[in-house]
Structures are given as C-alpha cells and as structure tokens.
Design goal:
Blueprint: H1 18-31, E1 38-43, H2 50-66, E2 75-79, H3 90-103, H4 111-126, H5 140-145, H6 159-172, E3 177-181, H7 189-202, E4 208-214, H8 216-227, H9 231-238, E5 241-244, H10 250-261, H11 275-284, H12 293-310, H13 316-328, H14 330-337, H15 340-343, H16 355-369, H17 377-387, H18 389-395, H19 405-410, H20 417-420, H21 435-444, H22 448-460, H23 464-473, H24 484-494, H25 510-522, H26 528-541, H27 547-565, H28 577-596, H29 606-616, H30 619-630, H31 633-643, H32 645-654, H33 663-669, H34 674-686, H35 695-707
Length: 720
C-alpha cells in the first residue's frame, strides 16, 4: 500500500508517455557517429520525473545492447554523484566507477592498456597510487631495472600525454561509452562545479557521451554564486544538446492520483461514501494541492497509514480532505487542531453569535489562513468552508447556509465537536506558538471575555505554559495600555485552571510566571493607586480561581519585605503596606465565599489557601471550617491529602518512608488537633470500604496513622 517514492524503471509503468521520448533519445545516442565527447542535458524541476526518464533510457540501452554484436555493444555507466556528496571524493569515485565498468566489459577491445592509462590519469588528480592489481605485469628485466608505475608521474608521462594517448586508444575502439549522471542538482555548489569539470575537462574522452539530469534553475543559481552571475553561460558551454522534461499536466496527475486512491477503497464503506461530496471538495480545492507525482506519493502514504486506523469513527471524504492539509499545509492543519471552538459548532448556543464575535473569530481565522504559503487564499477558504460550515458564517454571513448539525453528527463529520479529536489522533501536539498567533491572541485582549477564551483554548491544547513564557518575555510596551486591566483580570481569574508547572532554582512555576507578567504590566502605571485599583478589581471579579490570588498576594508580601529591608521609597512598591492589607482582606473574603459554597475543600491547593486564611483573616474561622469538613469522610481525606501531599508523592515514587514526614504533624496542628482527627482516620482505615478508596486516599490515611503511631486492627505496610 505504501509508495516509497521510487521512480519508474520499466516502460510498462509509464503513465505519462515518457517511454517514447526515452527510446528515441537512447537510439540517437547509440547512432551518434562523432568521436568527440558529447554532453546531453535533461532539464526538469523537482518531481518532474528526471530519474524515471533516465531509467527508461537505460532500459532501452540495455535492450539495444542485447541485440548488438559484441564489437559494437555500448558500455553504460549509471553514476549518481549524490551518493558521494560531502565526502570530498567525487572525482576519485567517478573515475573508480568508470574504470570498474570498463574492466567488467569482456568485449571491450584493448581494455588492458586503456584501463592502465586511465588509472595513471586518475592518479594525477587524486594523488593516490594505482591499485597493485591493476598495474601491468613486467618481465624480470624491467622489474630489475625499473620501479613499478604506482603513480601517474612515475610513468615518464605528464597529464597531457596520458590523456592524449588514452583519447587515441578510445577513438580507435568501436564501443560507445555512455555515462548517465543523475541528481546533479542535489550536490553542493562546489560539487556541481566539480561535476562539470569532470564531464567537460577531466573526462571529456573520445567516444564518450554524458547524459546529465538536472534542475536548470537550481544549477544556474548555484553557478551564478560561484562564477559571478555567469552560471547560464557556463551551462550552455558545457551542455551541447538539451531537452526539457515537460511539466506533468493536471489531467495526468489526476489520473494517477485517482488510480492510486483505489487501493483505499476496500477500507471505505460504499454506503457512507458520498460521491457528490467528494466531487465538490476535490474539484473546488483539493486538486490544486497536487503539482508533482511526489506530492501524490506523500499524500497517499499519509492517507494509507492513518485512514484504516480511524475509518470507523470518521467521515471518509472529510478525512481525505483534512489529510491534504496535514501533508501540504501543516501549519494550517495545526491551527485547526489547536482551535476546536473556532472550527466546530462547540460554541453555538453558548455565546451569542453577533457581529463583534464574528470580527474576533475572523481575526483568529485570518492568522491561521495566513500561514499558508503555497495555496491561494480563496481556494483554501473553499476547502475550510466545506469542512467547517462555521467558517462560512464568519466570512460570508450574508449567504444562506444549508447545514444541519444532526446530519453532520450522523455522518461523523469533522465539524462536530464530539468527532473532532478523532481526526487528529495521529497528530502530535507541538506546543508551538508562532509570532503571528501570539500577536493575534494579544489583540484579543481588547475584549476580556475573548482573551479568557483564548487562554482556555491554550490550556486545552497544553500550550498555556508556552504562552505564559512568551508573554513573560514580551515587552510590556507592546501591549496597549487599555488592555492591561483585561490581561490582569484574565490571569488572576483563570490561573487555578492552568498546570502548576515545575518550580526549581532555575525554573518558575505557573504562579510565579503569572506574578512576573502582572508585575511588569503594573509597573507601566506610574501611580500606586492605579496599580492597587487594578489588583483590587481583579480580585473582586475572580470567580474561577482562589489559589492564584493567594500566590499573588504572597509575592507582594515578599516584595514589600524586601523593599523595606533595602529602604526603598514607597514609590517603588507595587502597592503600599496599607493597600496590601486591603488586598489580603479581599482574598480572605474570596476564600470564605468558596468555603460557603462547599468548593474550598476540593481545591488541590487547599493547604496554602488555609494558611492565607489563618494569616490574613481569623484563625478561629479557619479552624471552624476545618472542624466542619473533617467530620465527613470526604473532608478528612481532602485535608490529609493536602497536608501530606509531599509524603504521598514520595511514597508513590520510592515506596519508602522518609524521616522528614514528621513535620507534617506540625502543619496539621496549625489548624486542628491531630488527636481529634485520629479516631476518625482509624475508623476509615479499619472499615471494609477502605479497599474501595483511591490510592492517594489510602496513602493519606496510612501515613497519618503511622506518624501518629496509632494501634490498629490492620497492619499498616512498613513501606510507607
């Protein structure tokens, strides 16, 4: 099923009518009577089929040789210089191959002397001795009087004499030497020049024909850089006869593509396949992706690998179309994958689809479509409009759109939110954010709700940490002043939803990264009252996060302490000491609100939140909250998981006890009496329902009871 992108080698495989030309050119080379060296060029761009034409010519030469008398049979060398590229041995490798080819032809007349002269000739260029096996045998008198001719200059001839003598012998013999050299365009610039030196100077032997396959534009461009703009003139001087391989017509490409797609038909459910949908998407947009046979190969390989593995859960036409984007426009493909809400019906019925939202969505969609380099925008828009009807609403809201969400869901189309991820199962999240996408996201900050939605999308795509890193390194001056408040509000309201991040001596966790961003933005406010007002407003508005508020105020506390120790003026403080106390009170109010609506106990960062409540509010309120929740099994487990978080992690990693765990009892004592919790924890451990608890809950109970040295009816494993 998979195509290794190999060129054809037999005329039976020819789908483009190249075999007739190849046969004719091969016969012309054989019939060429002039004994002078001839260089023929085959010019074609990337993927035009140069190697296939070379192979067809070689096939015809081989066929002709089989029907030719030995004394007229051609000697053919197929040399690919790319195999030796970068090894500084192009000249040596070529002449070694030529010598080997001549030695392998038993019908080659006068081969012994010609090969000896050729080996001497090689020695002049390579400064390497003639291999011992190829040195002519000498009688006992020459062996006694003379040394062997190991190097060209030891033969008593100079380079010109050796070449003249070699040319004379080659001119007398009746065999044509035909050298096919492919992949010239793939060489480095200096190696292209070296290859031309071989065919025009070093190796321009009598009765020798060179057939060079190359991309003329690339070679001329390379030689222009080496020869000061004289690349085309140099090429015309070297190549005496040239042929342009025609560009493959779109009709031929379509015929090849559709023929190869037949290999996937056994995987397609004929009853679910829509020929009209395929015709619409193929002729309106998909066909423009394919410019060479190599494009077809890349597309078919990706399709053949992915489709059989997801055929039961996707729409075949949609998957075929989306795969074209994956292969030819991977940046656009990644943009679709990372913006599910923009391309599916996910947000319909949730957010009002008004003109302002259309404008923002179009801004995001423009950024993604602008990533396409090889596809006209109108064609790409047609393809995206077919796959994702929502795009038509964005760009052509005035047009009537016949789209049924229920029908699309039944057909398992990619525009359905519940099918979307299935199309990207073999797509690895790169976590990359381009400068254009970053700029688009920052433009959305003019609308706080739009910016919040952008943050949530980045979080869903596992790219939020990358975004925060880029935002931290973005100059605050690049952000419009009127957007600062929106960014501060969004970060402090959404921070708890983001991954915690790694915290070390060299890396910042998410909370510290957000603090740095907010700190840089607030410094653009010259008045401390303005900075205080922005923070106060963000805390009052925050409904989805509370821990990030605690972390921000803790960071301001450290800043206040540091600046007091260095005796800096209040002007340099983000907020004053009095304003900081107000902010602390506001955060405590948010914590108490979370406690009243029974959301606080389930927070994964419960412990630092409790310390903030105790330090900035009243310890009695905090303790009453703890007493209330720990009366219930769920509340006790939540508290123990929070306090024993590090011991639990160590137990999971190392399955052993650490003496530092004893400090956890002191933290428990900061909020409640460990003895008061002991009986409840013991009862839960000894209960039959203990085995049904999650592993972390089991560890929390066992570690706590072990630290308390509680006697239980069940043995607590010593590993913890």
């Amino acid at each position: 099923m998979f195509d290794a992108d190999r060129p054809i080698s037999k005329k039976e495989q020819d789908r483009l009518g190249r075999s007739v030309f190849s046969q004719y050119l091969a016969r012309c080379l054989l019939d060429h009577k002039d004994a002078q060296s001839l260089v023929v060029g085959l010019y074609g761009g990337f993927g035009s089929g140069k190697t296939s034409v070379i192979n067809l010519i070689l096939e015809e030469l081989e066929s002709a040789a089989a029907n030719t008398l030995d004394e007229e049979r051609p000697i053919v060398l197929n040399f690919s210089p790319w195999s030796y590229s970068g090894q500084n041995q192009l000249i040596y490798s070529y002449f070694r191959r030529l010598s080997s080819t001549l030695r392998a032809a038993p019908y080659f007349q006068g081969s012994r002397k010609i090969i000896h002269l050729l080996e001497l000739y090689i020695s002049f260029f390579t400064h390497q001795p003639v291999p011992k096996a190829l040195r002519p045998k000498q009688n006992w008198w020459r062996q006694w009087r003379h040394r062997e001719d190991a190097y060209g200059w030891e033969s008593g001839r100079d380079l010109t004499q050796v070449k003249a003598e070699l040319n004379e012998l080659l001119r007398r013999q009746p065999h044509k030497i035909i050298v096919c050299i492919d992949n010239v365009s793939r060489l480095y610039e200096n190696e292209i020049k070296q290859m031309f030196q071989i065919v025009k100077s070093m190796g321009d032997f009598a009765n020798t024909i060179y057939l060079l396959a190359l991309d003329k534009d690339q070679v001329v461009s390379a030689m222009n850089r080496l020869e000061g703009g004289a690349g085309e003139a140099l090429l015309e001087k070297i190549v005496q006869l040239s042929f342009d391989i025609p560009v493959i017509t779109r009709q031929d490409l379509e015929s090849i593509l559709l023929d190869k797609l037949k290999s996937l038909l056994p995987y397609v459910n004929a009853e679910e396949w829509s020929s009209s949908d395929w015709a619409d998407v193929y002729y309106s947009s998909l066909r423009y992706f394919f410019e060479t046979c190599r494009d077809i190969t890349r597309y078919l390989n990706a399709l053949s690998f992915g489709y059989p593995r997801v055929k039961e859960v996707v729409n075949a036409v949609d998957y075929f179309a989306l795969t074209a984007l994956e292969v030819f426009l991977p940046e656009v493909y990644a943009g679709i994958r990372d913006n599910k809400d923009l391309f599916t019906d996910l947000v319909e019925g949730v957010y009002q689809f008004d003109q302002e939202k259309l404008r923002k969505d179009r801004l995001r969609c423009d950024e993604i479509m602008n990533r396409a380099q090889r596809m006209p925008r109108e064609i790409l828009l047609r393809l995206l409009g077919y796959l994702f009807p929502r795009i038509q609403k964005i760009y052509r809201p005035e047009e009537v759109l016949f789209h049924s969400e229920s029908v699309a869901r039944k057909k398992r189309r990619v525009c359905c939110p519940d099918r979307f991820e299935a199309y990207f199962r073999l797509s690895m999240q790169a976590g990359y954010i381009s400068s254009e996408e970053m700029e688009t996201i920052l433009q959305l900050a003019s609308d706080e709700q739009a910016f919040v939605q952008a943050l949530w999308r980045l979080n869903q795509d596992n790219r939020i940490e990358k975004f925060l890193d880029l935002l931290d390194s973005t100059s605050p001056d690049k952000i419009p002043h009127e957007n600062i408040g929106h960014i501060v509000d969004a970060l402090l309201d959404s921070g708890d939803l983001f991954p915690e991040g790694e915290s070390s001596l060299l890396r910042f966790n998410t909370a510290m990264r957000i603090h740095r961003i907010i700190h840089h933005l607030l410094k653009r406010e010259s008045k401390v009252e303005s900075r205080f007002s922005l923070l106060r407003h963000a805390i009052l508005k925050a409904t989805k996060s509370v821990h990030i508020l605690v972390q921000e105020i803790r960071a301001l506390e450290r800043e206040q302490q540091l600046e007091e120790e260095t005796a800096l003026s209040q002007h340099y403080h983000t907020v004053t000491a009095e304003q900081l106390r107000v902010l602390q009170t506001l955060v405590v109010e948010r914590i108490q609100f979370w406690a009243r609506i029974d959301r606080l106990a389930e927070h994964p960062q419960l412990l630092p939140i409790l310390y903030a409540w105790r330090d900035w509010g009243t310890a009695e309120d905090c303790q009453r909250f703890l007493q209330k929740i720990t009366l219930e099994d769920v509340g006790l487990l939540a508290f123990l998981r929070a306090v024993l978080r590090e011991p639990i992690e160590q137990a999971l990693r190392h399955e052993s006890k650490n003496n530092s765990w004893e400090a956890a009892l002191a933290q428990i004592s900061d909020f409640a009496s460990p003895k008061w919790l002991e009986q409840h924890a013991k009862a839960m451990f000894e209960d039959l329902a203990f085995e049904q608890l999650r592993e972390r809950d089991q560890l929390a109970l066992m570690i706590f009871l072990d630290l308390m040295k509680t006697e239980t009816s069940k043995v607590i494993p010593k590993t913890v």
